[in-house]
């Protein structure tokens, strides 16, 4: 049977001969095999349908979350653009820079560098 499934010519010829000797056509044989296994075929079809439905729901959720993220980011940018800004005088920055430099020097002294 494995040889027939693989399509090996000798096995295919043998199966066709057996089917013809039984007085059945290939179409009748295939129809009977399908009818016999219809429950399995339908079960596989339902599994495929459910898997596709789950995939589609996941893709919809990804799209929804991306649109929510984009909307949130756009709103945040708009708030920043519309916000009030305060000009910091250079003396404040210079004081901060001086304090930072003094901390670095103190850290080096403590480490012994």
Describe the structure.
The protein has 113 residues and is mostly helical. It has one domain. Helices cover 85% and strands 0% of the residues. The protein contains 5 helices and no strands. The protein has helices at residues 2-6, 9-21, 26-36, 38-82, 90-111. The model has no long low-confidence stretch (mean pLDDT 83).
What is the mean predicted local confidence, pLDDT?
Answer: 83
Radius of gyration: 38 Å
Total DSSP E strands: 0
Q: What fraction of residues sit in β-strands?
A: under 5%
Concise synopsis of the structure shown:
The chain has five helices and no strands.
List keywords for this structure.
single chain; 113 residues; 0% strand; elongated
